[in-house]
């Protein structure tokens, strides 16, 4: 695997870890609080077809990313451990400048099996990793913090934006922020049915020059005003998304740096189609869209951003 030079943007990584799914299907253990999830598998033949479609979508997405100049470190999930959501690695680990890695406690028991020591060891061999902080021991106490699904991190302003949910324990959030140097910004959300949004990263995307945010889903007018004020203070262009656009995963995007020094916004084809021409124009002043077709994977309630674990580590020199 090629290891890139340092990313051109502090916010936008130029390399990602992705995990190719083997037995993908919408996860029944996560359905209760994930309103974005749709449908369960029926007969075994249907399950096999859905898993095959998810692998095909994954392979096409990797090809598109690599063709755009993004380095993809691809790992395979062999399916032996019943991990239907393995394609979403951003929930169980994150990487940080200065050589730090965090491992996270997951709410659903079958998602806890996604954590893989081989991926962390591979990162240690190819990137400068000085410290691995493991929060997964909090799972027996029903305390969860599902990585950069639960938190949207502003790497410049050092803010951790978090929508309150069962998957974002406030005590663990405070501990993570204290150890990794972020200020937590908590807010409450509610969809049209009054349910909280399960992960912040379906609601918000922080890029170098702009923010995508579903402000209407922030339940309290006072909190909404405060969130928008703080986003405005960051100097970024604030692009507000409707609840319908959030439902189409328009907020579930990740800005990436390319090897050539540019930036692209990775999102799903469904999400790109949901944007208005004016919104696309504002985004593409900074980062042209990179749409990836993942309709089968989106049935699990996550989209492109969830598939990408960004690498914010310094690469080791060749031969080191």
Topology readout:
Elements: E1 15-20, H1 44-67, E2 71-76, E3 93-96, E4 100-103, H2 109-112, H3 117-126, E5 131-134, H4 147-150, E6 151-154, E7 159-163, H5 170-180, E8 183-187, E9 204-206, E10 210-213, H6 221-233, E11 237-240, H7 243-247, E12 254-257, E13 263-268, H8 269-274, H9 277-284, E14 289-292, H10 304-307, E15 309-310
Parallel strand pairs: 1-2, 4-5, 7-8, 10-11, 13-14
Antiparallel strand pairs: 1-15, 3-4, 6-7, 9-10, 12-13
List keywords for this structure.
320 residues, alpha/beta, three-stranded mixed beta sheet, 10 helices, disordered N terminus
Walk me through this protein's architecture:
This protein is α/β, with parallel strands linked by helices. The chain contains 10 helices and 15 strands. The chain has helices spanning 44-67, 109-112, 117-126, 147-150, 170-180, 221-233, 243-247, 269-274, 277-284, 304-307, and strands at residues 15-20, 71-76, 93-96, 100-103, 131-134, 151-154, 159-163, 183-187, 204-206, 210-213, 237-240, 254-257, 263-268, 289-292, 309-310. A 3-stranded mixed beta sheet has the order 2-1-15. The longest helix is centred in the first third of the chain and has 24 residues, at 44-67. It starts with 14 loop residues before the first strand and ends in a 10-residue tail after the last strand. Mean pLDDT is 93; it is low at 1-7.
């Amino acid at each position: 695997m090629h290891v890139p030079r340092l990313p051109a943007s502090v916010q936008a990584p130029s390399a990602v870890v992705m995990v190719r799914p083997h037995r993908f299907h919408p996860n029944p253990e996560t359905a209760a609080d994930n309103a974005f999830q749709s449908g369960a598998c029926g007969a075994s033949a249907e399950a096999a077809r859905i898993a095959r479609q998810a692998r095909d979508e994954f392979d096409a997405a990797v090809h598109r990313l690599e063709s755009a100049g993004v380095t993809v470190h691809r790992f395979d999930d062999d399916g032996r451990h019943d991990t239907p959501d393995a394609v979403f690695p951003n929930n169980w680990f994150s990487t940080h400048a200065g050589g730090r890695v965090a491992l996270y406690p997951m709410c659903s028991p079958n998602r806890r099996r996604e954590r893989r020591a081989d991926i962390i060891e591979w990162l240690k061999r190819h990137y400068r990793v000085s410290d691995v902080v493991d929060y997964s021991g909090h799972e027996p106490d029903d305390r969860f913090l599902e990585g950069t699904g639960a938190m949207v991190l502003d790497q410049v302003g050092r803010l951790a934006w978090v929508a309150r949910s069962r998957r974002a324990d406030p005590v663990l959030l405070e501990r993570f922020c204290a150890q990794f140097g972020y200020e937590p910004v908590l807010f409450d959300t509610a969809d049209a049915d009054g349910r909280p949004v399960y992960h912040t990263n379906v609601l918000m995307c922080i890029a170098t020059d702009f923010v995508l945010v579903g402000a209407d889903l922030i339940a309290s007018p006072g909190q909404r005003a405060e969130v928008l004020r703080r986003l405005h203070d960051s100097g970024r262009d604030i692009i507000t998304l409707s609840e319908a656009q959030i439902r189409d995963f328009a907020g579930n995007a990740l800005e990436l740096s390319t090897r050539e020094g540019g930036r692209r916004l990775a999102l799903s084809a469904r999400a790109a189609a949901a944007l208005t021409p004016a919104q696309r124009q504002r985004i593409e002043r900074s980062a042209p869209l990179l749409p990836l077709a993942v309709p089968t994977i989106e049935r699990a309630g996550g989209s492109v951003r969830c598939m990408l674990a960004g690498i914010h580590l310094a690469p080791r020199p060749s031969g080191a």
